[in-house]
Structures are given as C-alpha cells and as structure tokens.
Design a protein that fits this description.
Elements (H helix, E strand, L loop, with lengths): L2 E2 L17 E5 L3 E6 L7 E4 L2 E2 L2 E2 L7 E3 L4 H4 L2 E2 L9 E2 L2 E2 L2 H15 L10 E5 L5 H15 L3 E6 H11 L7 E6 L4 E7 L2 E2 L5 E3 L3 H15 L9 H11 L6 H10 L2 H6 L1 E4 L13 H49 L5 H8 L4 H19 L5 H14 L12 H47 L1 H28 L14 H4 L2 H17 L14 H7 L4 H4 L3 H16 L30 E4 L2 H4 L17 H10 L6 H8 L2 E3 L9 H12 L8 E3 L6 H11 L3 H4 L1 E2 H14 L8
Parallel strand pairs: 1-7, 2-11, 11-12, 13-19, 19-20
Antiparallel strand pairs: 2-3, 3-4, 5-7, 6-8, 9-10, 12-21, 13-14, 14-15, 14-16, 17-18
Helix pairs in contact: 3-26, 4-24, 5-6, 9-11, 13-14, 14-19, 21-23
Family: Belongs to the actin family. ARP5 subfamily.
Subcellular location: Nucleus
GO cellular component, one term: Ino80 complex
Amino acid sequence: MPIVSKTRRQTDYNLFPPSVPIVIDNGASYFRIGWAGETEPRIVFRNIVQRPRHKATGETVTIVGDQGPAMMKFFDCTRSGPRSAFDSNVVYQFEIMEYILDFAFDRLGASGSAIDHPILITECVGNPVYSRSKMAELLFETYGVPSVAFGVDAVFSYKYNQRHGKCQKDGIVICPGFTTTHTIPFVDGEPVYKGSCRTNIGGYHVTDYLKQLLSLKYPFHSSIFTWEKAEELKLEHCYIAPDYVSEARKFQEGTKEAEEKTRYWQLPWIPPPIEVPPSEEEIARKAAIREKQGQRLREMAEAKRSSKINEMENELHSLHFLVKQLDQVEEDDIPSFLSDTGYASRQELESTVSKVTQALRKARGEPKDETDEFEENNDSNEKYPLINVPDNMLTPEQIKDKKKQLFLKTTTEGRLRARQKRNEEELEKERRNQLEEERRRENPEFYLEEMRAQYKEVLERVEQKKRLKTNGSNTNGNQKSGNVGRGERLSAAKRERMRLLTTAAFDRGKGEDTFGAKDEDWQLYKLMSKDHDEDDERPDSDEAELARLSSRLQEIDPTFELKAEGEPGQASGEAPRVRPLTEEDYKIVIGVERFRCPEILFHPNLVGIDQVGLDEMAGASIRRLPHDDKELEERLTSSILMTGGCSLVPGLKERLECGIRMIRPCGSTINVVQAKDPVLDAWRGASAFAADLNFLGNAFTKKDYYEKGEEWLRRYQIGYNTL
C-alpha cells in the first residue's frame, strides 16, 4: 500500500545500536517519535490517517498526517475523511494505529522487517488494560520489538520540569490536552494515581466550539470555517478572561476596551458592478430603436400578408378558369378531365373554390355575407345528410350513423365558435393596441404616467387578494395578520359545505340516527359534491391585466423593473428574497468568541458537558489523597505545573490561580507555573528516562507479556525516580 507524505525520511537509523531505545509520544493530536537521549523528536505529524483514491489511477493510497491542498487536489477525498485511532484519549482503532506506526518507523529510517530497538511509548492516566494489551501485542507480533515500556505523558513532563527547577517534588500537574484534561498529584516525586482526576474537555472542544460559533454567526461563509482554520484562529486570538462575566459585559456595552480587543478578518470581496441609471438621451435612443424595430416588423407582416393575398388570388383565378373549362367540356369527357386536374367530382371543385374565396375574404378582413353562410349550410347538409331526417324513417344502422354525425357536427361547430371568438378577441386587442399607440404618440409622457398609475392600482388589488386568500378576512380587529383560524381561510363555497356538515352532525346528535331514511336526505351529498369553486379557480382578470400592463411598460419604459417576490408589498407567506452580500458581510468580527470558547475549560457546561473545570479538578485531586495533611496540601498548591497544548492559551495561569484560591483556605500559597515547553516536554522527559541505564529494568519483553498475564499488565507501571 503506497504511503503519501511530505515528511522527509531519516537516513541515520543504522548508526544507532540496538540498545538505544525509540521514544514515542503517542498523543491524540500529534505523534512524535525519536531517539532516547536527544532533546528533539525526529518525526512529528498529526495523528490521523486518510485513505482516498487517486483521481487519475483510481489506486487507494494511505495519507498519514496533514497534507497541503496542492497535494490533496490529486485525490478524491469525498468517501474517505481523516480518521483517528483514538476514542477520546484511548487507542481503540489498532488498524489505524498500525498505519501510523508503519509510517513513523519508515520515516525514522527503519528498512528491515523488524524493529530491534526497545520502545518507550506514552499513554494516558488509567489507560484500560485492553488498550495497553493490544498495543503491546501489536508491537511484539507485528514489529518484533525486543521490549516495551509504557509511561504517562503528563508525568514525564512534570519530572522533566522538576529536573530544571520549575516545580517541586510535591506538587500537582494539570494537563489540558487535546480531548481530555488530567490532574495528577505528586508526593515525594512519585505520582499518586489514586488522586488523579479527569474531565472530557480539551483543545479539540475549544476549536470545535469556535468553529460552530463562527458558522452560526456567518452562515454564508460556513465553508471557509474549516476545523484547521478554526484551530489557527484559536491559537492566534483566543485568551482566558480573568472574570468571564465582567468581560462579557464589556462587549455587551460596547466599551472602548472591548473595541480594542476585537479582531477583524477581512475575506476577499469583489464589489458588484454598479448599475448606472440610463440618461434621458439613452432612453430616447432605445425608444427610437424600438420604434424602428416595431415599424420594420409591421412592414414585414404587411408584406407577408400581401404576398399571401396575391397567392390566394392567383389560386382563385386558376380555380375559376378551371370551372369555365369544365363548363365547356362534354358530359362524357368530364371524369377524365377531372382526373387530370386532381379532383374527384365537380362538387369537390366547387367546394375548393368556396373555401379559397372564404380564406381570401378573411385575409382581406372582409365580413361574411349571406351567400357564404348559405353555402356553409349547404356544405353542412351535404356532409351530415341524416341529421334532419326523423328517426322513424331510418334503419338502426342509420340511427347510429345519425348520432355520430350529430356528435361530429356539434364538435365542429364548437371549434368554429371558439376560433371565431379568438379571432374577435385578437381583433379587439389589436384595435385597442392601435388606440393606445395613437394616444402614446400624441402625449408620450402623459401616457407613461397613466400606465404606471394603472399598474400600481392593479398591483395593489392583486396583492390584497393574495393576502385575503392567505390570511382570511381578519374581521376581528384583535386578530393580526398571519394568525387566523381555519374558517377564515375558507372560501364561501367551502364554508357552505362546512355548514352543511355541521348541520347534519348536529341533527344526528339530537336523537335516533335516521339520516338516509328519506330521499331528501341524499340531496345533502349532491350539494356537498357540487363544484362551487368555479369563481375561485377561474383565472383572475386583475392578474391578466397586471401581466398586460407589465409587458407594455417593459416595452415603453426602460427604467421599469418588474416587482419580484420577497420585495416590499409581497403577499404574506411568501419567502423573502436574500439580500446581496456587501463588504461588511465579508468582514469577520471576532469579539466575544475570543474568550467565550476557551472558557469551556473552566465551565464545560457551556457545551453541554456536565463536569468540573480546571480549578475544581485541582481541589478534587487534593481531596482524593489517602491522608489528610494540611502541610502536604500547602506544598501541593505551591507547585502547580501546567503542561499540554491548551496551557499555551494566554491568561490561563492567572485564571487558574484565582480559581484555586477561591476553593482553598484564606492565606494558602498558590503558585502556578507553566512548563518550559508544554508541547514537547512530555517527549523530552520520556527521552531522558529512556536514556537512563536502568530503563531496561522498567521494560518488559514478549515472554513477560505472555507469561505474567493480563492481571500483571493491569498493575504494571514504571518507576520515575530515575528522572
């Protein structure tokens, strides 16, 4: 399985003899590995694994640690996100742990099938025996290490700082880590695990809380607030407030101090193009262009109409000439003459002449005369000969044909009437448009103002109808819009149906149920099933008029903008239109979030974790000690060491001193110090411990692991006095 990484491979692995141990700080956030006796780890990377597919080859690769966007763009990461081997601070996914160890040993320079160096690996306080057993089994069986030792990272950090005079033999170490926080008391230089305390809060929760707050504050930029970006903002801007309530009040009141503590992050923003309203010359020029285009279209339509009339006149002239020739042909030669011209009979030829004549008159705009109507009636009688014949004079087959002819005639006449009505409407529309065009040419400004006033009036009527349809009549003055009962939303027809149902139910409750015994009772179903909603369902004339006015205004007024949904004046219940983003929307303001997010270290209930904070954990560790010694408690509180990544947050030392002083007797000595390097001191302490000659006495071999059993492994712990 190919491994992708930006970490360079070490080349001096073979220069170290097998007696030199390998030191591993297996943290939930970062993995550090190096050689015993050195002051810096050789390899440091994020303790995560990702297994995406390459976009070009489709091959699954293993990516350990963080990789830059320049490399990740070649992989499809939609189905494989970053995964950790940890559940909180306990290793439980040993398949992922194997990928991480493979990568770590490879980057360290190991090339053989086995690791011939002793291993010292860190773990959390109270690590379950199952996790410790699986880790030892993985190191022994997969990598063939000769011996293994487990130690607590916070203890290594405390002992390392003790050697450098930062803390005393008696003291407390507070380690706010990535996902958990631990406190361990030390008595005579040895950790007392019975007095240790743990809460499930750490740097991960601070970062995630900051990410959530910013995503809720700026929902349109939620894709920018990735976990890595939130981590960067936390390290740069977050701090612990000495007094959370007073600090929050400053930001609420908007004091000058709060303004000074506010940070701004400007995202890239490109201003939208400014729409300049057209000038009068531009409006006049566009109107002239539209007038010219309209005149050209009218000329084209007139030319097309004239051409069509000429074609129809020529066709009619040819048909009349053909009829004259037919009159001169002898009776015996008529069938052959008609077959040569493409007509079956004289009647068909005359019918064609009649149709072409009617079409020509229609194209010219001439009204129908009585002769045309008489001819149409004759054609109808010829086409449907059985309609006017009584049924008693027809056979059963002819009666069936008569019904078919009656149906066809009715349908045809209905289509003709509908077509005639459409033609009349089009003529009326054209006549009205011509009148409006004449009015516009006489006084364009007055005509435009009149059209705008009509549009505004019709628009108000349409919106009023929508509001009434949505919210009801609101006849009750105490009832506000949008808060109406079901009866007020019903139409008149629906309210009538509801009244009928209510009346029927009321009558049934008076006594014996006799509904349906009389024929009149069934009239209720007819009334209820009758469609009374024709008025509600038919097209609204105001909406049609509004569409006509909108279309007309768009033609003659370049500055006219059609009112969109969501603008003022829209019917209630419609979704508002999203406003365009401005430069202020791209300015990220980080104010109260700076101290609100790390405050969860002292008040985990802010994120729904019902546990104590850092200051109360120190008091709980002191109370858990097996003996009640006031002098010992005094010595413990006078040497409190902060280690771990979260201890780098500014203001943590002062806030922790203040919190512990509140739970200790008056006059107690409280001294909180920060580790020399809260991030790397755990590995450095482990490196110093592994470099001691007595280290192998604290490690156990594969034989010890299988012979002594699980109970011995549960009680196993190394002695830290060598540090």
